[in-house]
Design a protein that fits this description.
By secondary structure, this protein is of the alpha+beta class. It has a domain of 135 residues. The chain contains 10 helices and 16 strands. The strands form 4 sheets. It has a 6-stranded mixed beta sheet with strand order 2-1-6-5-4-3. It has a 4-stranded antiparallel beta sheet with strand order 7-8-11-12.
Length: 427
């Protein structure tokens, strides 16, 4: 095991301007360990735990470090091979500058820079490249019709021939129903019965009605490709309009988000209630696509003609100010009814629901670099919402919840952020 003090062995003393320099796979793994060591030092070890906090080596093995490096190199290789968009030195320099400018934990970012020898080349390759490659790959993958086009065509063809509410259950996609209830309305206090209901306050209810009025206010059924976020962002021509502007029994045009194609329909409505159905076709997860298509790893990959400068981190750069809000970049998919835990160096969110679809995906937000990393979906628990999550000091444990319709879970899982892996809990 190469320790942090020996990292300088791999870093030749050279002038700041270095061209065509490379890093071996072994060097990258050593630097990755230095990064993980910083994060591990800042991980919270609960006071309630009587056992001492273990060393990094006890919780993260050499193969696990190698996998982290392999994953970000594969992401970079996929950007180059599949989208012909290799990461450039200019992009990596911009990513380093973004981290230095927007970090919410300048002291931790300084520790990371120092762990990498304050070498701008190493920082670009081992800290900026992993974050930037994942962010760009996720964005390009989500809407690439070479990957998802066949599914889109099949879903569109099915909707064209089965375009009534009664026929939605006959489609090959997953069908579900949900009822929105205005919690402070007269009907919100009534028993919701066996159907799953999502309670909304007045503001949430009014916003939902406006979106649905835009989508179902006289629209014809169809199969046009429409972004769900674009639909949500439209300004309804019937702002403040009553529920009568929302038509029932109309199947929406096909819509798309990062994870699926889907269509919805209002089944029935009341003064303080809306019941709608959704049919969805899930896209192939990025993780499974990446596993079967990016087998080769360029172990010496670097941006050509790299000429990096170490960005300055001022004492207050991006830091938090008491009793104020600072916007953060969001993960790929918005959600509600998810959980969040704080590890001491990252916030981990998981599961919840996007519109009416339960999720088993998540993300890790690092304030020090102001960036998100997706959590692994391999062996993750079943998609759910209304579950609980706790932080043990080294793992996030999730348990319980429901599927957003009828089923209640008595299962869970343990997520280890160091190894980005799930373990099923005993039932």
């Amino acid at each position: 095991m190469v320790t942090v003090p020996l990292l300088a062995f791999f870093r030749p003393e050279a002038a700041p301007k270095v061209f065509n320099r490379t890093l071996t796979f072994e060097e990258r793994v050593s630097y990755q360990r230095a990064i993980e060591d910083v994060y591990w030092r800042h991980r919270i070890w609960p006071k309630e735990r009587p056992d001492p906090k273990p060393s990094l080596d006890a919780v993260m093995s050499q193969p696990q470090l190698e996998k982290k490096v392999t994953d970000y190199l594969r992401n970079s290789q996929a950007l180059e091979d599949y989208w012909q968009r290799p990461l450039t030195a200019e992009q990596l320099q911009a990513e380093m500058s973004r981290m230095a400018q927007h970090t919410k934990q300048p002291d931790v970012l300084r520790e990371l820079f120092e762990a990498l020898g304050n070498d701008p080349f190493v920082i670009a390759e081992c800290l900026a490249r992993p974050a930037l490659a994942e962010r760009l790959l996720t964005s390009w993958y989500a809407h690439d019709q070479r990957i998802h086009g066949e599914l889109r065509q099949r879903a569109a063809a099915e909707l064209q021939t089965h375009n009534t509410v009664e026929q939605m259950k006959q489609l090959s996609g997953r069908y579900s129903e949900i009822q929105l209830v205005r919690s402070d309305g007269a009907g919100g206090q009534a028993n919701c019965g066996p159907e799953h209901a999502m309670k909304l306050n007045s503001r949430e209810w009014d916003e939902s009605v406006q979106r649905l009025a835009t989508m179902f206010g006289g629209a014809n059924s169809g199969t046009a490709r429409t972004s769900s976020r674009a639909v949500a962002a439209r300004v309804s021509p019937a702002k403040g309009a009553p529920m009568t502007h929302i038509n029932t029994g109309v199947v929406s045009p096909m819509q798309e988000d990062e994870d699926r194609y889907y269509a919805t329909a209002i089944i029935n409505k009341g003064k303080d209630r809306l019941k709608f159905a959704t049919v969805e076709w899930r896209k192939e997860p990025l993780e499974s696509w990446r596993a079967r298509t990016t087998n080769q790893v360029a172990t010496a990959m670097t941006a050509p003609n790299a000429n990096y400068a170490l960005p300055a981190i001022s004492a207050g750069a991006g830091g938090c100010t008491d009793d104020t809000w600072t916007a953060t970049p969001g993960p790929a998919d918005g959600r509600v009814l998810h959980t969040a835990v704080w590890t001491g160096s990252e916030m981990i969110i998981w599961a919840g629901r996007y519109i009416d679809t339960p999720l088993n995906t998540g993300g890790r937000y690092s304030p020090s670099t102001d960036s998100w990393t997706a959590t692994s979906a391999a062996s993750a628990p079943t998609a759910r919402l209304n579950h609980t999550a706790v932080w043990t000091g080294s793992e996030m444990i999730v348990w319980g919840g429901d599927d957003g319709i009828f089923f209640r879970f008595d299962t869970g899982g343990r997520y280890n952020p160091g190894t980005d892996s799930w373990t099923t809990t005993s039932t």
